[in-house]
Amino acid sequence: MAAETTRAGQDSYEGGLRKVARVVLLDPEDRILLLHGHEPDDRADDWWFTPGGGVEGDETREEAARRELAEETGITDVELGPVLWRRRCSFPFAGRRWDQDEWYYLARTTQTTTRAAGLTELERRSVAGARWWTCEELTRARETVYPTRLAGLLRTLLDEGPPAGPVTLDTEIV
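Structure (tokenized):
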């Protein structure tokens, strides 16, 4: 799963966990945008994940979600909705272990062209592109996707709408 250091070099941490804002971005056809990541030195060790990243300084998670989405996709015309899910995760990436507290925001856009112009140096070495996925494609995918239950979560979201409050997902340790 991709992670990055901020321009200032300092992410916000709380209780030893990196504070992260992620975006479940849906287009008018209810496709979800995922980024294709890989280990910087091993393109074969790859996965798909939602846009997002670490909270910088004193910004809110909502501000971080908007900033990260703009940096990683070039998409700025979004309707940012509620927090859908919260998840704690821990994974190895780029030679270190990342322990994160992630909040997933729902967002909608009509803009489907992406341009990753604001990537950090590490992201430039580890993000191979972006793709819009239908729920059916995601369900059939053989690739690794994070969070691992994303296809089912997306199906529930599309069928039932956003939950009344954020749903806490199982902790994922890779």
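The radius of gyration is 15 Å. Residues 73 and 116 are 5 Å apart (CA to CA).
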